[in-house]
Every structure is written in C-alpha cells, then in structure tokens.
Design brief:
146 residues; alpha/beta
Length: 146
Amino acid sequence: MPDTIFIRPLDPLANVADAERTCETLDQYPDSDVEQITVVFVIEQLEGFIDPASPEALNQGAEEVFSYVKDYFSNGPDINRALRAGTDTVEEIVAAADERDASAITFSPRPKTRFQQILTENSSYRLLSERHQPVVIFSKRQMEEK
C-alpha cells in the first residue's frame, strides 16, 4: 500500500457538478505525492431496456467531465481517463480501481432527497464493502465551509 491514500486516487464522476465538488474538495488536500488522478465515468446500461440517450450524448457528457478535471488540475498531477459502461455501476468503479491500481476511491456526496438516499444506500454500502482499497468520502460539512 502506498504511503498516502492520495497518491493515485480514482474519482467516479457522473456529471460536471460532481467534478466541480470533487475537484474543489480534493484540492483542499495538498499532497506533493499525488502522481495521478483517475476519473471514471460510468455509462449505466439498463438490462433489457434501450437507453433513451444517444451514445453521442453519453460520450459528450463523459468528455465534459474529463475536460473539466483536466482543466482544473492543469498544473497538477496527471489525469487518467476511464470511460466504462455496464449494468452495475459499483462493479465498474471497482474494476476501474483495480485496473488502474488506484490507491483509494475518493468522491464528494451529491445532494439528495431522502427518497434518493434510500434508493442509493445499497450502492454506497457495496462501494464501501467490496473494496480492498480505502474509500474516502469527503464530508458534506467540509464542502459547505468552502
């Protein structure tokens, strides 16, 4: 395990708002040992359903996220891009972390309604429990203080 969990973080991001929150928060943890940040964008495929969004629109969303992170850290560590697609978002994030030898998975929680929290608790739990690497969830309080 590396000396610091921030040496090669992997950040799963769904949109530019996620990228903004995560970049700003990650930037609060200055660490001269950061070698690269891997940004993973997962296109969720629903089994048995046709996705109403075109592949071009989904790829454009990924490109916007990748570009935001690269521009934000233009003078910082290398940015590694990972575009994945699958029916299980957590499985795709875990696979990307393994493939990229991520030192940790880091992310900022999204603002959610109570109903959204109930629906996503299982995914959050799986992300925490199916990892052999640390998962760093930046606190909502810390983001609000910024």
